[in-house]
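Below: protein 1.
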Amino acid sequence: VRSGGTLGTIRKKKEKKAKKPATQLKTLELWKQGMAAIEIALHREMTEGTILNHLEKLKTLGMIEAKEFSRIATPTLLDALPNIHALFRELDTDKLSPVFQKMDGTFSYDELRIARMLLDK
């Protein structure tokens, strides 16, 4: 193998990539049962951030609608959504850091990720 890796290493990388959709589908199944992101994380022994990444990916694949994420948003976050969404548009970005900085850390990255998932694109 030219890259210097062994055939075994290459197989393991391919196997790991193949497992990603399966792990996201497990997350989707629990989501559809009504579990919140933190509950899924505890159930699956993963971080909440990992589960939010799964949910966001599932949204981009059209498997979860944006409006569904309102159930995991705090009332404070829901109240601030118009302002947060306006910042994403004003800054012309889908990145979290610029919005986090502009809001002086008022909301965590996970909260901003939920807000971004609630954005209907």
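Below: protein 2.
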Amino acid sequence: MPSIMNPTTNPFIHTQFTKSAMQPTDWPEDQGHEVAFCGRSNAGKSSAINALTGSSKMARTSKQPGRTQLLNFFEPTPGKRLVDLPGYGYAKVAKSMRAQWRAHIDAYLRGRESLSGVVLLADVRLPLQAFDLQLIEWAQNAQVPTRVLLTKADKLSRNQGMQALFRTQRQLPKSMDQVEAQLFSARDATGLDALIEQLLRWLDWDASRSQ
């Protein structure tokens, strides 16, 4: 398998943090291409972004889920952005704050013209939750393709992982033809190459020309 730290195979190691913002007026200019990362607060979203970018400090990880309370924007190359959306569903976060996060996620998914794809992260050991499916529906209504990243796949055997993948695929309505699912592990890089290939397509990025 190619080294994920090799810039010729993973251009995302050049990613730089741009800004954190909550209000749409503070977001970067709505042009170019963006891919949003979203999911429940304990789904491993920050770990996945760190694995993608080859940096343990790119996205903040914590033993206490729910730390990401703003939209965090990262730029692997000019005009291409990754967006870390606030995690949702963590019980210890106040209901008023969860409602606020949902409102901003909804506004982002419905109104961001540069949004080219959504990566939804979900723990492979659990079925998709109600808000996961709602988020997928939001993205589909906005005609934004979605990839479900089933995280922490290293905690299951290969057979168990495939069973979990099939379970997730059965949860997705057949009408959602712009939704795909894959296994992923930030710990051992399972599925990282497939994720990189998808991101490059969504971002309309020929990374070989930016080396």
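The chain has five helices and seven strands.
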